[in-house]
Amino acid sequence: MTPVSRPDKTPVCSVCIANYNGLKLIDACLQSVLQQQFAGLIEIIVHDDASTDGSAEYIRTNYPSVVLIASKDNAGFCVSNNRMVEAASGEYILLLNNDAELFDDAIARLHAHAQALNEPAILGLPQYDLPTGDLVDVGNTFDLFFNPIPNFDRALPGVGMVIGACLWIPRTLWNDIGGFPAWFGSIAEDVYICTVARLRGHPVQALPISGFRHWGGQSFGGGRILENRLSTKLSRRTISERNKTFVMIMTCPAPLVYILVPVHLSLLLIEGLVLSLVKRSWRLFTEVYWNCLTAQWVERKRLSSMRKSIQENKKIRLTNYLQVFSLLPHKLRLLFKYGVPEVK
C-alpha cells in the first residue's frame, strides 16, 4: 500500500474516493471535485483497491495532485475508506463513490451547513440518478428492520442515514465512532455509522439543496428498478441482509432489541423459504437467508462486545431514536409496487 503526493497546506475538506476498476468513471468523479466553487483547500485522496484496469497508473499520471493509496490487495470498501480517513488532513471528510459526481456547489453547501450547526453532524445531499436525472432520495429513513426508505421531504429536519456514496462527516466524529467496521466488507456501513452517530446525540441530516449524481447499484449490481421491477444480485442480497442484521443487533436500544431481533430473524426465514419456492432456487435460501442466520452466530462475541460499547455511549432517548423509523416494513411496500424481486 503506497500513498503518494500531498498538498502543502492544511485542507478544509478531504474528499476520499474508493476506487476499484473505475477507469471509465474516475475522470468524471475527480473533475466534479476539482471544479468545486469553494474558497477553501480541498484534499483529494483515492484508494485504489488493487484494480486490474490500470486505474492507479492513470490517476498517478493524470492527477498528480491527488493523494493516491495503491493497495496491493483487494481490501474492500470499508477498509479502503478507513485507510483514506487515517491518511486525511482535512477537518471534514467527504466520502465519495467513484461512480458519483458532485454538483459544483456541493462542498460549499455542506461546509456552510456544518459551520452553522456548530456541532458534529453527518450530512448528505440530494441524490440524483445519473442516467435519468431523477431524484433518488434526500437521505433515507428506516423501517424497524433497518431497511432504508428513500426520503423525498426536503424539509425533514433529520434522517436515519445518508448514503455512503456521498457522506460528509467531521474527522473527529469519524475517529470517535471508529470508522466503518472493517469486517463488514461493504454494504450497510453507512447505516451503521449514521445510526451510531444518532445514538450518540449527533444530527444526521440531508441538505435540501445542491446534490450529486450517482450510478446507483453499479458496484454490487443491486438496489435498482429496471423495467418496473426490483432487480438485485445474489451476492449483494447476501451481504445486505447479513450486515443490516449486524447493525440491528449492535445498535437497537433495549428493550426494543429483544422484540425486534427474534421477529426479524423469523421473518427472514419465512421470506427465504417463500422466495426460494417461488424462484425454485434452494441456493437463494442457503446463500442469503441461512447465511444471514449463521453469520449472527459466528460473530456473536464481536456483536456482543460492540453492542455493549455502543449502548454504553448512547445519549438519545428511545422516542427520539424512533423518529426516523416507520412501522410498515419497506419490503412490503416494494412487493406491492414491483412484485417479487428479481435475484440474479
UniProtKB/TrEMBL annotation:
Residues 14-133 form the Glycosyltransferase 2-like domain. Coiled coil: none annotated. InterPro entries: Glyco_trans_2-like (IPR001173), Nucleotide-diphossugar_trans (IPR029044). The chain crosses the membrane at residues 256-278. This is Glycosyltransferase. Pfam families: Glycos_transf_2. The keyword Cytoplasm does not apply. Keywords: Membrane, Transmembrane, Transmembrane helix. The keyword Transmembrane applies.
